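Weekly puzzle thread! Below is a chain. First person to post its structure in token form gets bragging rights.
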Amino acid sequence: MKRRYWIVVLVLLLVAALNFEYTVDVIKSNIIQSAVEDSPGIAPEGMYPVLMIHGFNPVYSQRISEYSMKEMQQQLAQEGYIDKGLLTSQTTCAQLRYMTKPIVVRATYLSKLEIGEIEEYAHNLQKIIEKITRCTGAPKVDIVTHSMGGIVARSYLELDSTKVRKVFMLGTPNHGGLYGVGKVADKLVDEGQSKVHADFVQLSRNHSFLQQLPENKKGITYYTIAGDIDGKGDGLVTKESVALEGSDHIVVECNHISLKRPSRCPEAFSVVMANLAE
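Winning reply:
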């Protein structure tokens, strides 16, 4: 009985912790909105906002997804970027404007607690990027993605490729190439279509969505970073599947989750940091 009690307490504490940052940001946005003129900024020339986009989330929680790229955001802040925390529907232009240093912000393409498909996420990402460019005055953003987030970014670029300068993809299954537990996606595809309408199924190499998605867009620089821990890949995505035609590609000795964590995979972060600065 005591054990069950403490499990419940721990779950409640976890939920509270995940919602704390979001709640604080929303409250801050409401205060700023009532006190400051919410007009767009004028970004310094050649200084681009950085947007952090998470990968697949099996429980489809916005709060958990928003937390996913926090460590890399904090590391970028230590390197001189201005940490703007989370971008929410209540985030104001006043919170995103910058003058002397570029900003880094996290956001989620999930809009509800249910399984969606990547095309829907791409439209949500479009709204996020439009808000960032409008509020900052920057003509383009740089996107750092993990796993499925890279596919969401590529799908978004089919809607609008004019507002992105660079795309970094950490462990993104650009050509499917799922193995281990990821192989279940292949079993849920029949003649190129999903047997079950779910985002992760579209990551199968056999799915028409992934097969028909253009690899790159003119004018955008792509960086693909693959993990290799077993000679095959990062434990979930094969290293060959990550590379895109024309991308700067590197393979590091990190597993799939560690690729987004500078403390666990400094090699991947070094690639991101060095090329963001160019």
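Puzzle host: Confirmed. Bonus trivia for everyone else. DSSP finds ten helices and nine strands in the chain.
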